[in-house]
């Protein structure tokens, strides 16, 4: 299609009259003369060296050597010409849009790439610093934990000693409880025995009181009898005579002894 457009443009140029092209030539010559005579306003602006520009273009091409770059460039040009001539690819508005997009993306990649690269490197450095700090903190925490655990290396021996102490404490507590129970039983038995002793003493006191009361009552009853009083008086007189008048009244003592035997044979008893 491009070749058709080119042939159509060439045919239209041939069909134009010669007069239409003649006035353009003097105007072109005049403009060239004026441009050559007037000083250039852009002469003061530094222009880029063509060699440097060409080298930059060559460097942008893929390849390691000049031959490979030339081969790639010629191959790309040949393929483009072949595709255009055989109408495999048609130049239209989509091509313009694609070229514009490629140009925009190329500009973004060329000028925004270094900025993005620097930003990405700064972010990487920041994240790397955070990770390194976290790793250092974790390493320090692990070392501290290891040191703490090393301080507890004798925990087994301490646990064994504490177990022995606890076992001994349990034994002593059991013995103390046993002694406490024995003491409680002994105190209970003592209280029971004391209660029995008090009861027996109370019983004895009551018996003695009853016996004394009975004896006193019996004596009082005997004292109320005149015969008993006479016998007591006679016995008292006999005792006095036997004590004080025995050397003088030996014979009388014999008779009094007989009378004492008679008195002793009576049923009267003091107790």
From TrEMBL:
Record text on subunit structure and interactions: F-type ATPases have 2 components, CF(1) - the catalytic core - and CF(0) - the membrane proton channel. In yeast, the dimeric form of ATP synthase consists of 17 polypeptides: alpha, beta, gamma, delta, epsilon, 4 (B), 5 (OSCP), 6 (A), 8, 9 (C), d, E (Tim11), f, g, h, i/j and k.
Functionally, this protein is described as follows: Subunit b, of the mitochondrial membrane ATP synthase complex (F(1)F(0) ATP synthase or Complex V) that produces ATP from ADP in the presence of a proton gradient across the membrane which is generated by electron transport complexes of the respiratory chain. ATP synthase complex consist of a soluble F(1) head domain - the catalytic core - and a membrane F(1) domain - the membrane proton channel. These two domains are linked by a central stalk rotating inside the F(1) region and a stationary peripheral stalk.
Which GO CC annotations does the UniProt entry carry? mitochondrial inner membrane; proton-transporting ATP synthase complex
Record-linked SUPFAM superfamilies: ATP synthase B chain-like (SSF161060)
From the broadest rank down, the organism's phylogenetic lineage runs:
Eukaryota, Fungi, Dikarya, Ascomycota, Pezizomycotina
Q: Which organism is it from?
A: Sporothrix schenckii 1099-18
Do the record's keywords include Flavoprotein?
A: no
What is the name of the protein in this document? ATP synthase subunit 4
* Keywords linked to the UniProt accession: CF(0), Hydrogen ion transport, Ion transport, Membrane, Mitochondrion, Mitochondrion inner membrane, Transport
Which Gene Ontology molecular-function terms are recorded? proton-transporting ATP synthase activity, rotational mechanism
